[in-house]
Amino acid sequence: MKKLLYTLLAVSLIFSACKKEEEDDTASSPFIGYWSGYYYQQDSTNVGAWNADISSSGEINGTAISSAAPEGVDLIGTVSNSGIFDAAIGTGTYGVAFEGQLNGNYGSGEWSSSTDGSSGFWEGYNYNQ
């Protein structure tokens, strides 16, 4: 009987020692901080400036400024832990989409307007790194 008890105890210890570690749900974005830059038309004409704070969860909250909107408009979106940047000014028919890639403290990509069909590129830097 003791032999059976010791065997069961040993087996349970083995399985508890092999328990899979739980994933850390508090993973933090590697792109946290204050970002700012400019966006341009395809011919490199400066359209405006943008700035945003990226949170630890990868949320983008910022402002885009242009001659058409000197008071600024909200720039909202997300960035993945691999750096995929996806943000927008407005939505749907009246919006401008910003898509691109962040790497270290630099990011760049393209923007396009659903309002007038214009498009171009953007770039920016993280000033906290």
In short:
This protein is mainly beta and 129 residues long. The protein has one domain (33-126): Quinohemoprotein amine dehydrogenase alpha subunit, domain 2 (Lipocalin, Beta Barrel).
Main sheet: strand order: 1-2-3-4-5-6-7-8
- What kind of oligomer do you see? single chain
- The total count of helices amounts to 1
Q: Sheet with the most strands?
A: 8 strands, antiparallel, barrel
Outline: globular
Q: Strand-residue fraction?
A: over 45%
Structural class label: mainly beta
What Rg do the Cα atoms give? Answer: 24 Å
Mean model confidence by pLDDT: 84
Number of extended strands: 8
The CATH topology is Lipocalin
CATH class: Mainly Beta
CATH A-level architecture = Beta Barrel
Contiguous uncertain segments of 5+ residues? 1-25
Topology as a string of helices (H) and strands (E): HEEEEEEEE
Share of helical residues: 10-25%
State the CATH superfamily name. Answer: Quinohemoprotein amine dehydrogenase alpha subunit, domain 2
Number of domains: 1
Question: What can you see in these coordinates?
Answer:
- The chain is mostly beta strands.
- 19% of the residues are buried.
- The protein has an eight-stranded antiparallel β-barrel with strand order 1-2-3-4-5-6-7-8.
- It has one helix and eight strands.
- The chain has one domain (33-126): Lipocalin.
Summary tags:
globular, 1 helix, disordered N terminus, Lipocalin
Write the layout of secondary structure elements.
Elements: H1 2-17, E1 33-41, E2 46-54, E3 59-66, E4 73-79, E5 84-91, E6 94-103, E7 106-113, E8 119-126
Antiparallel strand pairs: 1-2, 1-8, 2-3, 3-4, 4-5, 5-6, 6-7, 7-8
